[in-house]
Inverse folding.
């Protein structure tokens, strides 16, 4: 795998994940609140997140694969990378852990609530997901800033 392909897949994966969170948090969430009646919101979010989360899984696989390939295949290991790469990797791993929590806990409960037509429980889970996605969005934007600043840190 060439460095150009690795960095391209890496950046595109970050764009999909962080851009999707930005869209969901800053554009879709306010619009849903204004247009969709409260009883239908949990189902809309469950269906939307189901589709988005497929892309997040792919993004995570590509981010990890290309990131470790660049660290070990291009730069010769962890000792040869700058502080900015360590920061990106640490924050990225934290983002992944938060995502895994969202996916396997509140999102799973959201899907169960929607299947059982438990609107109040579904709304509660959407709120829980929103808070964690907000944190992950801030972390993702920080990773992008660190990446752009690079070795100048």
């Amino acid at each position: 795998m060439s460095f150009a392909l690795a960095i391209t897949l890496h950046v595109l994966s970050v764009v999909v994940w962080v851009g999707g969170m930005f869209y969901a948090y800053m554009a879709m969430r306010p619009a849903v609140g204004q247009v969709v009646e409260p009883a239908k919101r949990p189902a809309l979010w469950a269906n939307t997140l189901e589709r988005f989360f497929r892309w997040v899984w792919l993004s995570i696989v590509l981010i990890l694969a290309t990131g470790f390939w660049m660290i070990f295949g291009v730069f010769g290991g962890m000792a040869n990378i700058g502080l900015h790469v360590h920061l990106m990797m640490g924050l990225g791993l934290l983002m992944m852990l938060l995502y895994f929590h969202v996916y396997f806990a509140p999102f799973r409960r959201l899907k169960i609530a929607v299947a059982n037509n438990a609107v109040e429980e579904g709304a509660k889970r959407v709120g829980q997901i929103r808070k964690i996605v907000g944190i992950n969005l801030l972390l993702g934007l920080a990773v992008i800033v660190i990446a752009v600043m690079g070795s100048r840190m």
Q: What stands out?
A: The radius of gyration is 17 Å.
